[in-house]
Amino acid sequence: MTEKPGITPWEVSNELKETDYDRIANEFGAKLIDGQMISRIKKIAGEVHPFLTHRIFFSHRDLDIALDSYEKGNKFYLYTGRGPSGEMHLGHLLPFVFTKWLQDRFDVDLIVQITDDEKYLFRDVNERDLEKYTKQNILDILSVGFRPEKTHVLVDTHHSGLLYNQAIKVSKHITASSVKAVFGFSDSDNIGKYFFTSMQSVPAFIMSVLKGRNVRCMIPYAIDQDPHFKLSRDVLPKLGYYKPSSIISKFIPSLKGGGKMSSSDRTTGIYLDDDPKTVRRKLMKYAFSGGRDTAEEQRKYGANPDIDFAFNVYRMLEPDIGKTSRVYEDYRSGKMLSGEMKGLAADMINEFLARIQSQREIVEKDYDSYMFDPSKLQ
Ligand code: TRP
Q: What is the torsional sign of CA 361, 366, 367, 371?
């Protein structure tokens, strides 16, 4: 029997297939986003995002409850985050593009939590690098174009007073044995790790604390983060708050194929400051291809677009679903070759990066105004 790929926030198998994701979501107790749910989102949002159509965001917890309440006039707020352990590449940034879409379409506040404490506890990074990546990652994330007046960045070590006072309340309801069971910690893991889920839980109810009334929270995250929020969902009602809802994604495939893109090797990912030539070269040279070895075989047998990096990124950035279907068909049937597919993806990525890079200069000037400030919340 082959071993099933597993998931925790710190260990991810990179061989996950479609069916594995459905199975894991099932085992975690999350629901799949079905056609009916997509139609419902479309009705409220006025359009549907390719990340939903293509099942990149494929699973949820209590999304229906958040939508029911939204339709009655009670807005939820969005909460997502990033552990600043290194430079961000395309795979890290794309989920934020979807979050921006949600913010725009639902016209809601967003909290972005930067868990520098988490990376300090779990990785071998020094404080100076953490500070550097914190600033750099925040700018990258903001470059996606979040609304300035509705976007609030929380940095764990900077907002420690606000967060710690609530985190202790969460931690009081989480036992060492449940953390061990959920994350697989042992007695030799440092005690900071045991506490950390409490910090990541706080933004899921901080608006309720600050506004003095319960506000629903919806969290977009990749499925490896689900164990944290499963714990939050157990604890928050005990503190008198709503369970957070969530919308859960798969991993964005890496340039070289498989699960998460690695952040240590620059050739495994497309970086946000890569110039158009570099992007094209990386795609041509390294991108995992679902095509055949020779043009002749490709014409004859066609490609497997589902596992092809270029196709996968292309479909995330192409808003026109009809176009994507045509590209899929042409590539699958052999009418289109790998090189053409990569060229198409390179153009798309370069257009996207150009927007990010120009937006970055704007947000750099307003950096401070995005920082979470309780006194500025209406
Ligand atoms: N733990 C996440 C990471 O390692 C960062 C994070 C904090 C997060 N809060 C979140 C991610 C909420 C998604 C949603 O990157």
A: negative
